[in-house]
Specification:
The chain is an alpha/beta fold. Helices cover 43% and strands 18% of the residues. The protein has 5 helices and 5 strands. It has a 5-stranded parallel β-sheet with strand order 2-1-3-4-5, sandwiched between helices. β1, α1 and β2 form a beta-alpha-beta unit. α2 runs parallel beside α3. The longest helix has 13 residues.
């Protein structure tokens, strides 16, 4: 059975690009355009991993991390932050809130994302 990845990203073109790339690589994918909808999908769908943007409307990625890691049913889900924010303070803050990895959108190649996901959850059960 394919591993499930939830992409929480407000930029539609990036959501579709990441979803297409992950589906091509054997993952089951759901998407959400903001943190609030993403958090609801976590509860409904129970993904194996979350790709999370930090700057979004309604509920930002930091708030998603806070809520997710404080919940019994969501705290175990690995989170890879994928953001345009710079490393340093933003990365430190995201990791303190429970992010497992931090990637900058402009520095990352699609294969890097696949490799990081593979290290955290593998591809199939």
């Amino acid at each position: 059975m394919a591993k499930k990845v939830l992409i929480i990203e407000d930029e539609e073109s990036l959501r579709h690009m990441f979803a297409s790339m992950l589906k091509t690589n054997g993952f089951e994918v759901e998407t959400a355009e903001n943190g609030e909808l993403g958090f609801k999908k976590v509860k409904q769908w129970d993904p194996d991993l979350i790709l999370l943007d930090l700057l979004m409307p309604v509920m930002d990625g930091y708030d998603v991390l806070k809520r997710l890691k404080s919940e019994d049913e969501g705290g175990h889900i690995p989170v890879i932050v994928l953001t345009s924010l710079s490393r340093g303070e933003e990365e430190r803050k995201a990791k303190l809130l429970g992010a497992d990895d931090f990637l900058r959108k402009d520095d990352v190649h699609l294969q890097d994302i696949i490799d990081k996901i593979g290290k955290l959850i593998g591809k199939k059960e």
